[in-house]
Amino acid sequence: MDKFEKIDQEIKGYTQDKQPGSERDMNPRPIAEDDDYKAGGKLTGKIALITGGDSGIGRAVAILYAKEGADVAIGYYDETADAEDTVKRLEELGAKAKAYAFDLKDVEQCRKLVSDVVTDFGGLNIVVNNGGVQFPQEDFLAITPEQIQTTFSTNIFGMMYVSQAAIPHLSAGDTIINTSSVTAYRGSESLIDYSATKGAITAFTRSLAQNLAPKKIRVNSVAPGPIYTPLIPATFPAEKVEKHGQETAMERRGQPSENAPAYVFLASQDSTYITGQAIHINGGDYLSS
Fold it and tell me: What is the enzyme's main class (predicted)?
């Protein structure tokens, strides 16, 4: 049994009462850092901004970026303890790091986030649009206009706001990486508005990649499947948390650290001929559906 299977079996049903959730309060905590990873200086000298970078996939990406030599700014909503934990770890790894509280739904806050990062770090090379929310609802007719507005404003409008603010600061060779989802491709009967935003992210990624290709700025996405992040216990009932990921071909959920190398690949010189694409990290979800 490997470490990923072991922690999967240790996870019992539990919930949190607020989105996007707290990683510090999870038991066991997700695997954000894989000691088997061998860094190669692939992002030395780069400056990265990661929204939703305080926990989950964003935290794991931030850690690998720091290991690869980047300085890292993380945007977060209100999970201050998680943000502080992440910044502390990035600084231990030798990176310049800072966390910024902001609201993805607010265009002015998105613009200020990017402006503050550029001022504080002296530039920007990598944008990881990762922040998001989801609100399960079995009955489509019960989804309120307010829920739809919140889901779209957070997941896709905010991604576009941050990207618009960042692009004037990016140059040839720089990258934008968007977090999509397996639900963009297979749908989800209980996450209809969320899946719709993830489909929009896929189309946004492909379209922006074409738009920015003349500037030699690449735009790609990562489409995770069931990954153990704070959003899961903050979203689902306890019984679903416990069984999360068992429907995949690999019969387990994934860990944030299993996603992070894809974000390194897409931000580095290893992927110079890749744009408008998606990397699927879902434990064989397609194969089992």
Answer: oxidoreductase
